[in-house]
Amino acid sequence: MTIATLTALLLGIQACTSDLLARRVCNRVLLAVLGVALATQLLSSGSLPSLSQCLLGGLAGLAVLLPFYAFGWMGAGDVKLFSTIGFLLGAKALLPIWVIASLAAGVHALLVIAWPSVARSTPLALHRAASAWQHSTLINDWRMDLRSARQGRKGIPYAAYLGLAMIGYVLHGAGYA
Fold first, then answer.
1. Rounded to an integer, what distance in angstroms lies between the CA atom of residue 62 and that of residue 58?
2. pLDDT of residue 119
3. DSSP symbol at 152
């Protein structure tokens, strides 16, 4: 496992965790990853994408998602994360990661839209059991902690899906064959 592969896996885990919990992508982490990727490029050679491929990947990632941010459909952290993924793995990694993340986010959005009608159609006994579980002190404490961490931010955790797609891409071996 190379430093770039390990960095990609750690970035994916961090992006998933922070986006699911707080709906945030940490700029310091992205800068650290860019620093590690740049240092790796300058200090080694081999199966890594070339520096020009990394720069192209970073710019492509930025260019592809920036319009979605401009329209208000996506957060800036998602755009910066995708650009960092492009810089870390190269431009060739962006399309499969983008497709996988977008499909997962689309399924998530459909579930969010469908949930009210599904919840209304559940059997009464199942609804009562779920209601009792949801009103437990442990669950309420967890919900309060989650709301506090998110500070009112809502939406589909697209950065988490980007992180999961990147982890799958790297583990599948497409990252550095």
1. 6
2. 59
3. T
